[in-house]
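Students often ask why we bother predicting the structure of a whole assembly rather than each chain alone. The short answer is interfaces. A chain on its own may look different once its partners are present, and contacts between molecules only exist in the joint model. In this exercise we take two input lines together and write out one structure for the complete complex. Read the inputs first and try to guess which parts will touch.
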Amino acid sequence: EPEVTQTPSHQVTQMGQEVILRCVPISNHLYFYWYRQILGQKVEFLVSFYNNEISEKSEIFDDQFSVERPDGSNFTLKIRSTKLEDSAMYFCASRGTSGIEFFGPGTRLTVL
Amino acid sequence: EDQVTQSPEALRLQEGESSSLNCSYTVSGLRGLFWYRQDPGKGPEFLFTLYSAGEEKEKERLKATLTKKESFLHITAPKPEDSATYLCAVADNYGQNFVFGPGTRLSVLP
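Now the answer. The structure tokens for the assembled complex follow.
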């Protein structure tokens, strides 16, 4: 069964450093998403991506964040200068024609 | 602004003790209501989609129902392996993203 994959599973970084989180969505899906979940809190929408551009973004997704689909399979989230409060689980999701979003296993980002 | 609340926040059941989880929502034009299961440290796992009031979906010991204001996830004769956090999310007709509720943390004791 096709699934969304994410790498790395855990990323530890120093405050102020740049991180890139990687995702491989399900192959025939056209809509891609990033969500985050701070420990003990709800899953929060960050950004959606369709047709090679951002279609929607939340207030959380400020100038420190960017997304890219560098080739036909990968979808990346870059945080330019990490802050302590960026520590969270980051989930990638993709959606096809069914309307259902399928989530990856997440990347745990720890900012020290 | 779309909003989703879930109750209870946490629920402890004995194995075999049936119960229901509630998801209340306000949304401007419901595209769909989605139930997910999330195990600790893992991504949400899709369970059900409901699109219109009166709709019901079933899978093993779980049954989801939908009204115009809320959805219920009924768990019949639960087993310890049903222990997880159950998340409800809504999508409206105007945006593409989901709005998630805070979840109900279910523990089923043997």
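Check your guess against this: The radius of gyration of chain B is 13 Å.
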